[in-house]
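Amino Acid Chain and Its Fold in Token Form
===========================================
Purpose: to set a sequence beside its fold so the mapping can be learned.
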Amino acid sequence: MPSVNGKADVIFEDDDLPYEEEIIRNPYSVKCWMRYLEFKQNGPKTTLNMIYERALKELPGSYKLWYNYLRERRKQVKGKCITEPAFEEANNCHERALVFMHKMPRIWLDYCQFLVSQCKITRSRRTFDRALRALPVTQHPRIWPLYLRFGHNLPLPETAIRVYRRYLKLSPENAEEYIEYLRSVGRLDEAAVRLAAIVNDENFVSKEGKSNYQLWHELCDLISQNPDKVTSLNVGAIIRGGLTRFTDQLGKLWCSLADYYIRSGHFEKARDVYEEAILTVVTVRDFTQVFDSYAQFEESMIAAKMETNSEMGQDEEDDIDLELRLARFEQLIARRPLLLNSVLLRQNPHNVHEWHKRVKLYEDPTADY
């Protein structure tokens, strides 16, 4: 078999002679090398790799040659065990390519995906970071989706959280995606802080089409239902701030504030919130919502006390605390007509019909006020 330039390590067949002669005449022609590579495509992989190496030695700045060579090296290791040396050889080829192709996002993306498929977590993360440093900021949107997906698939959320924080500096409009991820991994405190930030940002436009009130309502639900996990925010101040901003949704906000205190174990504070709410709301809808929630709260307190007495074997008839809770609940139910009348009068203090009704309510001898 003939050899090139007398070197025994570069051996070719007789059929290769036309291509070798063409390359000798035009060593810097990408087309000549590509024709030769296409001809040897079904030949031994070592021979194909050798021709690629020869071509890249002459044309190290050819994107077409590097792209096809790297794709061929990845194809050669597909289906093999990731611990085989062939994977590291392919990785080294990518590193050599990036010396010349560091401004080509496609090379970075393919290399990052290749490393992720090998489960090389630290090396993948560092390569993503190198890609972001090497590429201009206008091409970063091509890297971030893959980087974020890589972070999502990691067993520990810390890496993804740090990646998201950097990502939001470039694309703050995607804060909702980050908040959803934080909620999915149980990082509710930071989720609440981020949600509060976008609620207070007048320029923020939801990508999911949510209004500012919907975002606010999500925030209220999050902080009221998880008082033990959300510690960085003043929950009471936030919800009371909402009471002044969203006057058409007072019932839900009052119930959220009371729910926060109930879940925190501050039952007397919750009762104070309910009392304040039913004495300040100005619509029947809000009153009904708050009153029903208040009554349900009192019923649950009675049920909890009765269950405790049953477990401890105490006589319910001698339990003063239980009697007090029952009396409080009965008084709440009895006060409902007068409280509802007060709501209607707050709407229109000049409603004579409601004033007459109020007089009759006070004259009712069965009422206990």
